[in-house]
Amino acid sequence: MNWQDIKVSADKTHFLFNEQPLFGSVFIEVLKFHSPGLAPVKDESGSYHINSIGNQLYDERFTRTFGYYCSRATVVKADNWFHLTDKGLKAYDQSYNWTGNYQENLCSVRGNDNKYFHIDLDGKRIYTGSFIYCGDFKDGNACAKADDGLYRHIDTKGSFLNNKAFLDLGVFHKNFATALDKYGWHHIDISGNEIYQQRYLAVEPFYNGFALVTQLDGKKIIIDEQGHKVISV
Q1: Domain extents for the chain?
Q2: Is the pTM of this model over 0.90?
Q3: Buried-most residue among 64, 168, 208, 223 (CB within 10 A)?
């Protein structure tokens, strides 16, 4: 049985294989299996992880458990957040006010001062600075809200990718990112420059050369990478 073929039931209380209940167990809550074949579950004893044959990975119980990413899973013990390895061991000594999921072997965390920064797989900070907020890395870049209240893109050294700042910002996807300035949402290139002059109420990332956007009048259209309207939606 391949763990990738194990599904979560509609009520999120048990697992299914070939549409049949698996492991003979019903839980309070389950989340889906992630590589390397481990899933978070919760029963009367607490939250923990099981493997693809239904056995618990470890004896300890937590307040909450989440899925594995990059062989690390966020767990919560009382008010302390940290990560476990795929052997069920604590990945590093420290704990945080919140931890995210690892992406590209890096993870956003919130420290005891409620500032955000990124750590590596061993729990070490990858740069010295902190931010009001920072998100996941994608293709070596992440969005961060600096102390001036504006969003910028950062690299894995915590340095700003360019000198452009925005009211809100999305990660780069296929060479473009969504950005909000005082006039509205639009798309920018890797240098932080607008790729067209129009502004919108909302924009989605480009999907194979086209993006769904909401005009200032509330109407939705599809635009190309030059900002030209293609069709109304």
Answers
A1: 1-91
A2: yes
A3: 223
